[in-house]
Amino acid sequence: MLSIQNLEAKIDNKNILNGLNLNINPGEVHAIMGPNGSGKSTLANVLSGKNGYETKGQIKFNETDLNDLSTEERAQKGIFLAFQYPLEIPGVNTNIFLRTSLNAVRKAKGEKEIDTLTFLKLIKEKASELGIDEKFLSRQLNVGFSGGEKKKNEILQMKLLQPKLSILDETDSGLDIDALRIVADGVNSYKNKDNAFLIITHYQRLLDYIKPDFIHVLSNGKIAKTGGSELGIELEKTGYANIG
Amino acid sequence: MKQFYDFKVEKIKDLSPEDKNLRRENLDLFYKNGFPNKKEEDWKFSDLNSILSKNFDNITNKDFLLDSKKLNLINEFKHNHIYLLDGKLISSDFTHEDKNKISIIDFKYKNNVTIDKNNSLNLLNNALANGGFTLEISKNYKLNKPLIIYNYFSKNLKETIINNKNSIILNDNSELTLINYIDNKSKDNFMVNSMENIEIRRDALLKNIFINNSKSAGYFYKYIKSDLEKNSVFENYILSSGLKFNKLDIEINLNQEYAKSTVFSALNLLESEHQEIKTRINHNSQNCQSYQKIKNVLSDQSKGVYQGKIFVKKIAQKTDAYQLSKALILNDDAEFDAKPELEIYADDVKCSHGSTSGSIDLDSLHYLKSRGIPEKEAYKMLISGFLGETLEKLTEENVKLFLLKKLEGQINGN
Question: Is A105 within 8 Å of chain B by CB?
Fold first, then answer.
């Protein structure tokens, strides 16, 4: 589904990614761990098509070269990034944002746009699965939401848009145990043989709930080690110091 | 500089000799100074004399009437209405109200507005006004539905000035939501010079909304003088985008304790549109509040101006005054000027002001795009969010939805 070969990324003339290789197949859950500054969030940003990075190397998503696609086209083709810091957007109503987003993705797929009533029914159902109070949906997007509410809102968007590849950038940070469980349940209930996850995290904690098939340790902009889910437990004990 | 105007009191019909004399005096005073220019502090960012001289050959006044037009009532929500054509009262309809509680009378020239001799447009208005209304709401009467004032203009206004004068009085504990609706698609140059006197008595509430429906090549100036009594509230919402030139000059006098005023403005200026919001909030009594939030989005070669002054008298202790101006400048050729001013003589007050300008937040744009929303649409969402936020405090949901829809139209350049 996703194939990254020899990816390099620079920002403000600083090398962040230095030849990263990664293959993700449908049905797989990959976790990327690594110390601060190792390039985890840069990888997420580059995959989402954020401006400002100078990149080299190849990223293919289902045989399409991602470098040719804008951020919105990537989203329309099924790449979803749950932001580490979801943005607060004053004046933009959450419901309207969600519907605009869903319809943009549907339109790109050649599907019919969804009408307001059907949408409201759908979003109500998805929100209640994640324990999101309906009143949040009529508020301004993320404005005044707590850290946990923002993260739940990201997962809500994921479940609404039904992406093929979901990248979760430190979705566990700022979550209490209950919120963490809800978010993890949200991910687990969406997981199936056709979609894949790339989970970026500092800690094993989230991986106790969402079991990865592979764990990669990122160090100095490259994958320094790859293992199964047991690697996370090992890292928890030994830290990142011995890797890379 | 060439003389680009020629005004005559004689063109106005049926004036008494005294009236004629008074008008002539005003006109003479106007002619001494002419239209305001940038040397005057109040006009330093909007040099009206220069703007008009470039866009008019010879402005004259007429005693119109009129090619009458059919009124197209908006159907988004039920409302009462007043129909003004070229500033003159044509009809009014208070279907939804107890008619005994509302008085509306046609313009009668009364010199009931204190004239600022330095404001030459007020002098000109005194000399030439030939239309308008006086609206009065009875004590304890709260209107069931909003009132829309439809401002229509006839076709042949090229090189013409319209002067009108309105008066709005809300007696004790009355309530009115007023929508000043300008609907004009003229491609001809004409000018509108309005004066409005607003009195809001004890415990009364006036919501004053300005919305412009379509693009117009008209040059608009409106001066509003408002006086607030104890515990009264005056809310203003300004969405006048689409006019070639517009200056709203609002004076709010918080004359008695616990009076409150707000000014929210959301302008999306395109092409060479030029709009100015000028406010002067006079805290003349203690425990009053004033709040101003002015938002501008500037594209193309447009120009936005905000001059906001808060004046706090010595006796106006416990004043709470706030003003904030935010501008998004989307093109290097666009311009925004802000001049916030505080003049405070009381020592126990809370006053703050701020002004920022910048461009669209790229991280926010990225966020929306990462959800599949095309860049152009994401841009518009951010702009309408930025501007629409000024309507948060408006409690009438149906009016708010209507305004948001109009705002979207303005952003789409309709």
Answer: yes
| Min Cα separation B405/chain A (Å) | 13
Report which DSSP code applies to A34: -
Q: Is A203 helix (H, G, I), strand (E, B) or coil?
A: coil
pLDDT tops 60 at residue B323: yes
pLDDT band for position A161 (50/70/90)? very high
pLDDT value, residue B115: 65
* Tens digit of each residue's pLDDT (9 = 90 or more) over A175-218: 888 889 988 998 999 999 999 999 999 888 888 899 999 999 99
CB A36 within 8 A of CB A81: no
Tokens of B34: 């002419």
Alpha carbon A243 to its chain centroid, in Å, reads 25
pLDDT digits (tens, 9 = 90+) for A92-130: 999 999 999 999 999 999 999 999 999 999 999 999 999
Nearest to residue B308, comparing CAs of B339, B353, B343, B275?
B339
**Global ipTM:** 0.95
pLDDT at A244: 55
- Is A101's Cβ below 8 Å from some Cβ in B? yes
pLDDT in tens, B94-140: 999 999 999 999 986 555 555 677 789 999 999 999 899 999 999 99
pLDDT band at B1 (very low <50, low <70, confident <90, very high): low
Cβ distance of A101 and B373 shorter than 8 Å: yes
Burial of A12 (0-12, 13-18, 19+ CB in 10 A): exposed
CB nearest to B373's CB, from A51, A72, A140: A72
CA distance B159 to chain A (A): 40
Chain B nearest-CA residue for A161:
B371
> CB of A51 within 8 Å of any CB in chain B?
yes
